[in-house]
Amino acid sequence: SDKLVIITDPTVKSLYGNNLKQSLTSEGFKVTIIDVPEGEEQKSLETAGKLYNELSDFYAERATPILALVGGVIGDLTGFVAATYLRGLSLIQIPTTLLAQVDSSIGGKVAVNHGQLKNKIGAFYQPRLVIADITTLRTLTAAELNDGLAEIIKYAVISDKGFFAYLERNLDQVKSLDERVLEEVISRSAKIKAEIVEK
User: Fold this and answer.
1) Is the pLDDT of residue 24 over 90?
2) I need a labelling partner for 37 at 20 to 30 A (CA). Which of 7, 49, 96, 106 fits?
3) Which residues, in sequence order, are CB contacts of 100 under 8 Å at separation 6+?
């Protein structure tokens, strides 16, 4: 397709979205960028409906990929929209939080909430590609990093004693965003998550 849709949130749009749009446009793509306000309340059928209208206004076709340039909540919403619009558009996850890089972008579980129903309306819809750019982690708060780190430690505890020992030895490097260590940690975590999903 010569068209691409980027779905993001306002913060990520200002940090990376506009640059990504400009780069893709300079390569000859027609790009629209849609930002969705942050927050769990956005993960709804109402917001999905708004995104469907935006996709229709852009004349998105079956061959038009959707790029989810966000963390986990809006990434789930974007995946749900990609799975259901025109019975499925290609989804590319570009997660911008540590938790999303090791968990939600890989799992293929996409869903929205509806009233008291949390994540009960959804699908299993795998992305065609996941791009985990560790430089996006530099803008996270300590709390956001810790959310991802907790998931990583859980993976190590349940499936890889050697990985757990590696985390113990390199915890300070993870927290200080050492690129070499982060690449190793995210890669190993993604592999564990992918194995769980395959089962």
Assistant:
1) yes
2) 106
3) 70, 71, 72, 75, 93, 148
Is this structure's pTM higher than 0.85? Answer: yes
Q: 7 has which bridge partners? A: 34, 68
What pLDDT, in 10s, does the model give residues 71-92? 989 999 999 999 999 999 999 9
The number of C-alpha atoms within 13 Å of 61 and in the hemisphere containing its C-beta is 5
Tokens 């109402």 — which residue?
A: 46
Residue type, 20: L
User: How far is the C-alpha of 70 from the C-alpha of 38, rounded, in Å?
Assistant: 10
pLDDT surpasses 90 at 153: yes
Question: What is the DSSP track for 115-177?
Answer: TTEEEEEEEE---SEE---GGGGGG--HHHHHHHHHHHHHHHHHH-HHHHHHHHHHHHHHHTT
- How many residues are given for the chain? 199
Using DSSP's 3-state secondary structure scheme, residue 25 falls into helix
> How far is Cα 76 from Cα 184, in angstroms, rounded to an integer?
25
Q: Is 37 within 8 Å of 9 (Cβ atoms)?
A: yes
